[in-house]
Specification:
Elements: E1 2-8, E2 11-12, E3 21-28, E4 31-39, H1 45-54, E5 59-61, H2 67-75, E6 79-81, H3 88-96
Parallel strand pairs: 1-5, 5-6
Antiparallel strand pairs: 1-2, 1-3, 3-4
């Protein structure tokens, strides 16, 4: 599987939309099989997503990412694991060993927003979304008025 991680000073870049460099890593059977680096000169989200897709990336592990860029990547067949932080070497090792869900790899303030994956690129089942919880005693789904959900 080909994964990509935006890099800045040896660590996961805090915002994918502004990242200038991308590590591309081939992982086979939980081991790193090869890696390369590419420049992200595209500012337009569509062009940036196209570049990532042209590189053959199937999984993007990143810090923060804008919703339009994430949706564009996802529609292009790239699975996105946002809100990850740490050194590139530690993140790659954690991904390969299925430990990316450890709290130390979650960006501060983003706990519960990122979706960890195992070395096969599979995530745990999706949690219930707001409004999809258990109905109250009157049979109505929970409401989240004014909460931005």
């Amino acid at each position: 599987m080909r994964i990509a991680i935006p890099v800045r000073q040896g660590r996961v870049s805090p915002v994918f939309d502004a990242a200038r460099h991308l590590w591309i890593v081939d992982v086979e059977e939980g081991c790193q099989a090869g890696c390369s680096r590419t420049v992200l000169s595209q500012r337009d989200p569509l062009d940036r997503a196209k570049h990532v897709c042209r590189c053959g990336v199937k999984l993007l592990i990143c810090g923060a990412i804008s919703r339009p860029l994430m949706m564009t990547l996802t529609s292009g067949g790239v699975r996105v694991v946002p809100f990850i932080c740490g050194s590139i070497e530690e993140v790659i090792a954690a991904f390969s060993e299925g430990r990316l869900d450890e709290e130390r790899f979650q960006m501060p303030g983003a706990k519960g927003f990122g979706r960890a994956v195992d070395a096969a690129g599979k995530a745990p089942s999706a949690p219930a979304r707001p409004g999809q919880g258990a109905p109250d005693r009157r049979g109505r789904a929970p409401q989240h008025h004014g909460k931005g959900f």
